[in-house]
Write a structure and sequence with these properties.
Two copies of one chain form a homodimer. The first copy, chain A, has helices at 15-28, 36-43, 53-62, 102-120, 134-138, 147-154, 183-186, 189-206, 230-240, 253-261, 273-284, 319-332; strands at residues 2-7, 45-51, 68-69, 75-77, 83-88, 126-129, 161-165, 170-173, 212-215, 247-251, 267-270, 289-293, 298-301. By secondary structure, chain A is α/β, with parallel strands linked by helices.
Amino acid sequence: LNRILLTSGDPAGIGPEVILKTFLALAQRPESKTEKKISLLKNHIEWTVIGSKIVYQSLIKKLKMACSFDKTGTVLLFNSQLRLPFIDVPLDGKIAIGHISKIAGKNAFAVLEESIRLIKTGRYHAIVTAPVSKEAIALSEPHFIGHTEYYAEAFHAKKVSMSFMSPVFDLVLMTTHLGIKKLSAQMKPPVIKLAIENALHLQAISKDKKPLVVMGFNPHASEGGHFGHEDGVIEKVIRSFKLGKKIVGPLAADSAFQQVYQGKYSTVVACYHDQGLIPLKMLSKGRSVNVTLGLPIVRTSVDHGTAFDIAGKGKATHGSMMEAMLCAARLLK
Amino acid sequence: LNRILLTSGDPAGIGPEVILKTFLALAQRPESKTEKKISLLKNHIEWTVIGSKIVYQSLIKKLKMACSFDKTGTVLLFNSQLRLPFIDVPLDGKIAIGHISKIAGKNAFAVLEESIRLIKTGRYHAIVTAPVSKEAIALSEPHFIGHTEYYAEAFHAKKVSMSFMSPVFDLVLMTTHLGIKKLSAQMKPPVIKLAIENALHLQAISKDKKPLVVMGFNPHASEGGHFGHEDGVIEKVIRSFKLGKKIVGPLAADSAFQQVYQGKYSTVVACYHDQGLIPLKMLSKGRSVNVTLGLPIVRTSVDHGTAFDIAGKGKATHGSMMEAMLCAARLLK
């Protein structure tokens, strides 16, 4: 039996709602042999939720959800078979659902700290994270950048890449949550090399036999050095792998993503956040999963944000959370 | 009768081939009343091709195309109705089809100069351009950046935006062929304001009644200033238009393009080349047209490059050229 932690993310966002909706869906789904993935999630994993109990209680009441806490308040009950251990990380004060606040940010951060503490006990094997608001956390933790960077530091992991698995293509990013202004300085051989190494690893996991494609940094991949030196650096790093036609690039990203869409490539290394995530999110329609490669544990996440505008209204969909949980369960196998 | 110039682009690229294929298709298509666009292109426009005659002659011979030059060598004959004035700009030496060369670049540039000269006679009303290789032109014209910048300078036009019309969405770029490193310095109010003004103009042409969406510059549109100041500048400029909900942004580009794909927005302002062109090219499948807004004349272009790898092989498709010609013809109306 594998044990996976679920962090609730920002308590004022849609994290608690999508976690509850996923398990409500699992509780209602019949277990047939054809539904292997339902069985995997229900019978082969013990899920433990970390979050603010009071937030879950109000949400269950408000949205009239068919679940409840047991008498001890440490287990979420969906039905006789589906019981989730729940670890309460209390709020420091009142919060308003759907709004950015320091209290909500502090709670989201405390939940992450608790996840690290639990992982270090050796009892748990993976973490699936619901979305946090970087803005909210930064009100008390000004140096917080994102989940990926946080876990990399907590585990002293140096070779971490923010990555995504989706039905259309898998993606590894060279850089993550960084202003465009700071990108050029990052385009150095170790950064590029690490992303390509992790992408080759991801190809092995996904059994992708197509060439790996590396996107160019500047428009038209600099068109012969015309728009900057960075694509020359990428080219040298690619050549240093000595893998011949197994790695293609740096290609002009606007036309190369057309080819990805047409199925020519299934694993992509992108230089920066929006270059990779614009096409990924557009094509995966909420079915992509954020995977942190290079950590000592498996860590996956939903592909959406806190969605404060619809939080607490019952409108959030749990498809991405289900995919993130499934992806974590599969990566543990 | 409107007169439109067609520039051939790099003579070693697929420009001449897609021009010829478009007219061969037009010559073969029956003129029925249902095919309004064919009639528009055949009967309401006089097209004049500018390029190297020898390149066209070899191509017609090699690909056994059903067209020829008349005795004077100044008219391309497709059939009795379809006759194209042809203006020869001779090559300075031999070129190899499919290869970057200084001679090919010089020829492509001379063709552009000829188009400016002809426009200034007052006889022509628009230009449709086939792709050039910036790398080839730069071998003799080191300051050449691209068609958009070239025509802006030639016409002393200060308020020019590189834009695209496509079946899925229309796009205006704040910046064009610029290295990522130089982008941040460009994110100033006049640049942002100009792109939004041109996008509002494009919305009027396209009769798009949805809100205009402006993409954020940094990941997550800086998430409250977390990744840079640029999105704050964009926000202020948007507010200065005082158009309320008619302009939305700056939005996190990765999720906003999902909404564009879902049809929530039809006109987009993107901050830089790849941010706008990755999703545009992916979704438009070769049916997008590059339009330069803010010139004293109409100028459109194909959305693809010189495609040296397939040049001269008969493999190029003319869909994008047909769309570019159609778009120019419609914009003249």
